[in-house]
């Protein structure tokens, strides 16, 4: 059965990696292994039913046999070289349910353990231990050489709450040879039941897409004995910036040098390493997890054999299981016995799943209130202090201590160090020297929900959260307690959890709705947030990693006294594919009062009948950029033609420029064609942007970028007026029916500069016939546009540009055409 359990775990691990075929083989193997035992061993029947149901789910759902949260939890099982699998529950009823921790591991694999080199002649040796289940002396635990005061304080705090047995039950010891179950050795029957072996043989020969009838019959048969449930990790449910908790306070007699380390040989090279095996259960990375470890611990060799690198009891030398728990803890930390620090709230969370909270010791009223709560474990973290003050208080700077009691005169602490002064008293006046209060709240709610997810990296601003993981909390309860955990990884990053009230689906920006909880960025790995709810109001939870460029994994849990659910927040509108662009040189026209405004990126939008809402979101990469969107009514004849003026009469709305992100909505827009212009206020800025267009309605809205150029061929030229008011240019093309657009403009850059009124016309130079003529004068800052078709190839044409009054200065002309046009001065 041990091997079957291992195969089921490996099946999950392979499924999470997308290796469906290999995963199915593991599940089939698990069922075959327990088939001979199902008549004599009830647990074998439960395992068989679970394995069969697992195969059925794989055949039906393929790679989707695991939920997204399950995949995330299994994919994050490898922590610093150790596999920490989510704990599985086999069987759905409480009377028959079995945890995967019941079954012994097949092998224990550990990385090389790093040890501190505390002196030139400091050595340690790994020795196998035989732990007992005693709780005697648990209250007398102390640390000596290892600076893990946070872990020792956590154990002392939980033990003081009368829950020492709960900590002991995190350690599972299995004597015996690998592969032999020691859970119940009396049942090793070879007898098969009800044709099980025949069923398994048929099942193993069934392809993923083959006939399922015999498999389904077998599943139904075993469902009659035990309902096989869905695989699920076991669910039983502010940290200050991590400071280096290592101290030489207790090592001065060793003349400790720098933090050099020594590596021990791998476990596989040690004799009798698998004479007995153990599993450790801890809560991190979104669920309760188990790992197979060896029952070996480091013991200090002479001449320092009277010192200890592991946690010990001053009253019970045989109390060794806390040291095995400590070993698991330092392996999870990644620093091993060369420990670099943690804090008490974080460590208590890993041991118990109690919600961690960190607040200032200056909040004496809150400290007193929590001390009266029997479901809260308390500790203090000392900060930086002078050696004189540390001696006066009897503490070590930057270390954690258990709160024993809170009284009128001050706070009594339990000292986790090996010291004659086991209890310390801190007067209220000295409490500010302890900047952190660690509180862990024991969950008292019967309903919970949990999700695990990946928060992607981003190049966009912190306040643009639309692409961040978002969940809506659903419950009839008035209060919900939220716990968010950043999974252990190569390097954790600051993150923020924000809860917005009165939302309508996904949140786009941080200023869109009222933030009622969280919002601030934290360096903690786990954070706790109590949340009061108003009935009938939607609340959306957003998790953000700020400007982090890489992805990071999180879990979110909600607890309440009524059924609670965390639903993925959905956008209120249907979004079109994201459009990415840039305001580069020549394509950043600036605001509408500049002549270059029409050079901004533009898009044609077609809005069908029945569109209820049009949503526009523009975000820039430059944090200092002021951005805006303008939406104009357009005629169909202007489709794909570059904007030629800023017509306020055709503008649907006018809003101010906003920093880095602009959000606009149009309710019930009329069907038709529109022109969207995205602009940056400063036309000297260059940066990228993202545009998201969303809509509500029966038919889809369409959006098409407008070409920036006037034509396939573009020619730029200019001339000086030199006191004249008329100027002619000679035109010729080698292609008949050439479509040409002329853009004539003065050098004025904004409305404050003088702009002469001009007009333009085109004539056939041979026949003197008019091709196109304008009779109205125009002094638009955006210039004058003229369109025509040059019907004949190799025929001379004349462009006549006129000015209302004589004057000086340059005149610039851009010629855009479907075929190459030669432009020359007419002599």
UniProtKB/TrEMBL annotation:
GO molecular function terms attached to this record: calcium-dependent cysteine-type endopeptidase activity
Protein family (similarity comment): Belongs to the peptidase C2 family. PalB/RIM13 subfamily.
Keyword field contains Protease: yes
Ranges where the Calpain catalytic domain occurs: 264-463
Span of the signal peptide: none
InterPro entries in the record: Calpain_III_sf, PalB/RIM13, Papain-like_cys_pep_sf, Peptidase_C2_calpain_cat
Originating species: Clavispora lusitaniae (strain ATCC 42720)
Xref: SUPFAM superfamilies: Calpain large subunit, middle domain (domain III) (SSF49758), Cysteine proteinases (SSF54001)
GO BP of this protein: proteolysis
Entry protein name: Cysteine protease RIM13
Record's keyword terms, sorted: Hydrolase, Protease, Thiol protease
């Amino acid at each position: 059965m041990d091997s079957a359990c291992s195969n089921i775990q490996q099946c999950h691990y392979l499924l999470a990696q997308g290796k469906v075929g290999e995963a199915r083989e593991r599940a089939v193997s698990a069922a075959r292994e327990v088939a001979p035992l199902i008549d004599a061993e009830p647990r074998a029947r439960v395992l068989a039913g679970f394995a069969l149901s697992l195969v059925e789910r794989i055949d039906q759902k393929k790679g989707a046999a695991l939920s997204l949260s399950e995949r995330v939890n299994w994919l994050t099982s490898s922590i610093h070289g150790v596999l920490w699998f989510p704990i599985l529950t086999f069987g759905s009823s409480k009377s028959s349910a079995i945890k995967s921790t019941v079954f012994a591991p097949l092998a224990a694999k550990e990385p090389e353990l790093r040890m501190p080199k505390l002196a030139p002649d400091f050595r340690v040796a790994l020795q196998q231990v035989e732990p007992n289940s005693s709780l005697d002396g648990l209250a007398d635990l102390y640390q000596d050489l290892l600076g893990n005061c946070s872990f020792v304080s956590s154990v002392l705090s939980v033990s003081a709450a009368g829950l020492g047995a709960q900590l002991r039950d995190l350690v599972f010891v299995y004597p015996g040879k690998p592969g032999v179950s020691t859970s119940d050795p009396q049942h090793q029957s070879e007898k098969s039941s009800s044709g099980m072996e025949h069923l398994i043989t048929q099942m193993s020969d069934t392809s993923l897409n083959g006939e399922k009838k015999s498999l389904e019959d077998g599943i139904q048969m075993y469902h009659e004995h035990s309902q096989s449930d869905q695989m699920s990790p076991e669910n039983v449910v502010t940290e200050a910036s991590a400071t280096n908790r290592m101290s030489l306070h207790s090592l001065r007699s060793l003349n400790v040098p720098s933090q050099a380390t020594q590596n021990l040989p791998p476990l596989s090279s040690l004799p009798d390493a698998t004479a007995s095996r153990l599993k450790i259960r801890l809560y991190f990375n979104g669920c309760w997890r188990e790992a197979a470890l060896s029952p070996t611990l480091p013991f200090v060799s002479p001449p320092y054999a009277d010192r200890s690198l592991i946690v010990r009891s001053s009253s019970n030398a045989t109390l060794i299981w806390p040291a095995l728990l400590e070993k698991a803890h330092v392996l999870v930390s990644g620093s091993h016995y060369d420990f670099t620090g943690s804090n008490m709230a974080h460590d208590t969370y890993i041991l118990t799943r109690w919600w961690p909270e960190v607040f200032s010791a200056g909040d004496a009223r809150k400290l007193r209130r929590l001390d009266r709560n029997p479901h809260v474990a308390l500790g203090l973290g000392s900060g930086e202090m002078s050696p004189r003050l540390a001696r006066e208080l009897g503490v070590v700077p930057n270390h954690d201590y258990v709160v024993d009691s809170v009284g009128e005169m001050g706070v009594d602490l339990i000292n986790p160090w090996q010291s004659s002064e086991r209890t310390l008293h801190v007067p209220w006046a000295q409490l500010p020297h302890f900047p952190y209060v660690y509180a862990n709240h024991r969950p008292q709610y019967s309903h919970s929900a949990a999700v695990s997810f990946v928060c992607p990296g981003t190049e966009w601003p912190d306040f643009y959260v639309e692409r961040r993981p978002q969940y809506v909390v659903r419950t009839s309860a008035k209060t919900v307690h939220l716990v968010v955990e950043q999974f252990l990884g190569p390097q954790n990053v600051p993150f923020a959890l924000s809860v917005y009230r009165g939302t309508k689906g996904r949140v786009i920006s941080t200023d869109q709705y009222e933030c009622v909880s969280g919002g601030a960025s934290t360096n903690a790995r786990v954070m706790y947030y109590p949340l009061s709810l108003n009935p009938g109001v939607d609340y959306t939870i957003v998790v953000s990693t700020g400007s982090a460029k890489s992805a990071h994994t999180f879990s979110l849990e909600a607890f309440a006294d009524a059924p609670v659910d965390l639903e993925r927040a959905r956008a209120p509108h249907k979004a079109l594919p994201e459009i990415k662009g840039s305001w580069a040189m020549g394509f950043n026209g600036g605001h509408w009062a500049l002549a270059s405004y029409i050079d901004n990126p533009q898009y044609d939008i077609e809005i069908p009948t029945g569109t209820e809402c049009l949503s526009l979101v523009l975000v820039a990469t430059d944090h200092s950029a002021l951005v805006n969107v303008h939406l104009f009514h357009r005629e169909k004849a202007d489709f794909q033609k570059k904007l030629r003026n800023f017509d306020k009469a055709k503008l649907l709305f006018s809003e101010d420029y906003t920093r880095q992100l602009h959000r606009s909505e149009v309710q019930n827009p009329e069907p038709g064609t529109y022109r969207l212009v995205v602009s940056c206020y400063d036309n000297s800025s260059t940066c990228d942007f993202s545009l998201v267009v969303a809509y509500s309605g029966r038919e889809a809205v369409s959006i098409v970028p407008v070409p920036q150029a006037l034509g396939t061929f573009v020619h730029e030229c200019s001339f000086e007026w030199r006191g004249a008011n008329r100027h002619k240019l000679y035109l010729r093309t080698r292609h008949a029916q050439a479509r040409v657009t002329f853009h004539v403009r003065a050098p004025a850059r904004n409305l404050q500069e003088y702009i002469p009124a001009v007009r333009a016309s085109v004539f056939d130079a041979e026949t003197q016939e008019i091709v196109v003529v304008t009779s109205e004068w125009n002094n638009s800052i955006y210039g004058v546009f003229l369109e025509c078709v040059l019907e004949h190839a190799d025929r001379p044409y004349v462009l006549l540009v006129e000015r209302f009054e004589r004057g000086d200065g340059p005149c610039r002309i851009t010629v855009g055409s479907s075929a190459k046009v030669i432009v020359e001065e007419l002599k």
